[in-house]
Amino acid sequence: MSVSHPSVHPVEAPPLPPPDGRPARVRMKVIQGMPATIGGLSLRFFQFAYAVVSLAVMVSTSDFPSVTAFCYLVAAVALQSMWSLSLAILDIHALLVGRTLQNYRVVSLFSIGDGVTSTLTFAAACASAGITVLIGNDLGLCSQNHCKQFETATAMAFLSWFTALPSFLLNFWSLSSR
Predict the structure, then answer these.
(1) Ordered alpha helix ranges (H), 9-103
(2) Residues 6+ apart with CB under 8 A from 48
(3) Which of 59, 86, 123, 143 sees the fewest Cβ atoms within 10 Å?
(4) Sequence-separated (6 or more) residues with CB below 8 Å from residue 114
(5) Can you give the pTM of this predicted structure?
(6) SS3 102
(7) Rg, the chain, Cα only
C-alpha cells in the first residue's frame, strides 16, 4: 500500500505589528511611467523636448506678443519645460542611486505639479489653436502672419500635453490607490 507521508515545513510567525499600533505600510507598485523608472524618464524627456520646440518656434516669430493666447502659450510651455526638466533630473538621480520615488508626499507633489502644468499647457494649446484657425481660415491673413510657425508651436504644445497626461494619470492613480 502506497501511503503518502506528511512532510513538515517550518512555518514562520507573522511579523509583529509596530509598537505604536499602526498597521504595517504597503509599498506602491512600480509601473513604467512613474517617477524613477525608465518609462517615467522618457516621458519627462519628451515633455521637455516638445515644450522647448514649441517655445522656440513661437519665440522665433516677431508678432506672437500681439496675441494674448500666444503669450499664454509661451508662458505655459516655459513652465512645462522647467517642470519636466527638473523632474527628469530628479529621475536620473533616482535611477543612478537606485532609489524609488514612491513616498506619499513626493507622489502627491508630482501629481499636483503634473496636473497643474498639463492643464495649463492644454488650455494654452487650445487657445492658440483657436487663434491660429481664426487667423488662417476665417480671416485669411496667413500671408501677413507666421501661420506655419503658429501651427507648429501649437502642435508641439499638444504633443507636450499628450506626453504629460500619462505622468499625471499614473501619479494620481498611485496616489489614490494607496
Answers:
(1) 38-59, 68-97
(2) 80, 81, 84, 85, 88
(3) 143
(4) 83, 164, 167, 168, 171, 172
(5) 0.82
(6) coil
(7) 24
- Give me the residue label for grid cell 523636448: 49
Query: What span, in angstroms and rounded, lies between the C-alpha atoms of 174 and 37?
Result: 14
Cell of 13: 510567525
Torsion angle, CA of 66/68/69/70, rounded to 10 degrees? 40
Cα four-point dihedral sign 119, 80, 124, 170: negative
CA dihedral 106, 42, 151, 165 (to 10 degrees): -40
In angstroms, the CA 144 to CA 136 distance is: 10
User: How many residues does the structure list for the chain?
Assistant: 178
- Residue 66 grid cell: 500681439
Q: What is the pLDDT of residues 72-104, one digit of tens each?
A: 999 999 999 999 999 999 999 999 998 888 888
Q: What angle do CA 119, 120, 126 make, to 5 degrees?
A: 90
The pLDDT assigned to 18 comes to 73
Residue 158: all three cell numbers together: 499638444
Q: Name the DSSP class of 100.
A: -
**For residue 42, which amino acid is it?**
S
Number of helices followed by number of strands (H, E) in the chain: 4, 0
